[in-house]
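Subject: mismatched residue count in predicted assembly?

I count 585 residues in my input, but I want to confirm that the predicted structure covers every chain. Input:
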Amino acid sequence: MILKGRAHKFGDNINTDDIIAARYLDSQDDSFLGSKCMENIDPDFIKRVSKGDIIVSGTNFGCGSSREHAPVSLKGAGISLVIAKSFARIFYRNCINVGLPILVCNDGDKISDKDELEVDLSAGRIKNITKNQSYNSEKFPSFMTEIVESGGLLKWIINKKR
Amino acid sequence: MGLTIAEKILLKHSGQKELGDFVYAKVDFCFGNDITAPLAVKEFLKAGFDSVFNPGKIGFVCDHFLPARDAKAANNAKFLKEFSRKFRIKHFYDINHCGVEHAFLLERGLVKPGDLVVGADSHTCTGGALGAFATGVGSTDLSAAMYTGFCWLKVPQTIKFVYKGKPGKWVGGKDLILATIGKIGVDGALYQVMEFCGPVIEKIGAEDRLAMSNMAIEAGGKAGIIAPDEITLSYLNKIAGIKLPVSYIKNLKSDRDAKYSRIVEIDVTNMEPQVACPHSPANVRPVSALKAVKLQQVIIGSCTNGRIGDLKIAAKIIKGKPIARGVRVVVIPATPDVYLQAEKEGLLKIFASAGCAVSSPTCGSCLGGHMGILDKGETAIATTNRNFIGRMGSPESFVYLSSPAVAAASAIKGRIAHPDEIR
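Triage response: the counts match. Full output below for your records.
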């Protein structure tokens, strides 16, 4: 799958309260949660983001609370992919489970805010169209690829049962 | 090659002879709360699942926005109640006979040494203090566990933390874990198990250990585990009425030749009470460096520090002294048992007489849900576990994290204070 979008840069240790504040967690609606995405740290983020855009972040993205509302909110905001140097573990599994693509890549610092990116997800190849550069990302363990390719954890379970 | 306690528990639940990179492990108990479980149930129903693996091994604890702060919160609890009735879920808890999940479920005897527990709440790691492999997962993971009784887990490496020296009078589990997170950072234990041990851990009480394991996630840890001992067994007997023989925990410790990714030694001698400053649990400083910080709110409670021992320390400091003018102080016993015990020991009277508000059990203010929210420009000290931007209300408010002793002393002074300042 090829994803295309503009980069939105964030720093290290972006936590799930940053992604979606707890006051909104009584909702499970993706478009509502999407409309509040990053509100605590960047109230204008939602005005700048377009469908398909890509978050590029530092280390430990998604740390803190286990709320699956965080990847749901990112999806609801139109984000197609998160690239980070590392992910917090519960956020990482939540993304695998709900089907929000993520890539671990150490070259995030070479990407600037608003750069146009084109990403070949299955190859893990990131093309920076603005800067005419390309970067590789870490390969997913085959077990996780299996879940992602099934369309998420619950579909993987249903397939497995068959 | 020997195994760590975490590896032993995972191996036992994997049904395999050896551990690979991943396990598809059998869970002893799984649970969620009024925020995470409604999403899990919606996914469960959407997937067309029509049965649960074991209605006695699933729990829903409505603790975050309860007593219902608004109609939406009430609806989430109602939704869980209806699902529980239909699928005969045994451990559904609404506001009556209900407390903060990571304190309450332990009192119900649902987390035992050697168990594999997954909870759709990041502070599930609290159960590690009893020698369980307890780890936080997401809502979809909870749906899957409810249906299959299994959970996929990457087999983690373990970091060994050895605590040595003699802790001072006011230094407890909260200070040890804050010092640890300050040392290694918020991703210092990413994907790894934190194993707490050493002479200090062997001596401190079970509630201090619970505060430590509780905050393993604040360093990115997958679990915060402590080998169970007689302190664990007598605590379980006291809070849950479970009598386990010593033989039950005999093998629940790391082998001498177990492999660790790293060993970190921490000397606690001369350690001051520790405080995490805004906006990171790793931004830790000794309390005496922060005496100029003025406060508008103090919170004593939560899954980290809302147990009876925490309230006892706070009450001892507050007894007979009014709280500072202009400071809102909320004391939140973590469970009904803690509340009743505090009442019996006269602690609630001490708090109320000093001017504190005493709440029924809830996670409430810790996550900025309700029951003590900060306005723009306001500052709180709290015995909770996170001080991220906007965690307790306005994105322009400030949260400091401390032990109950420091929070109580600060409530009297109206600024961050060392317990020694209170005579």
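Chain A has a mean pLDDT of 95. Marking this ticket as 'not a bug'.
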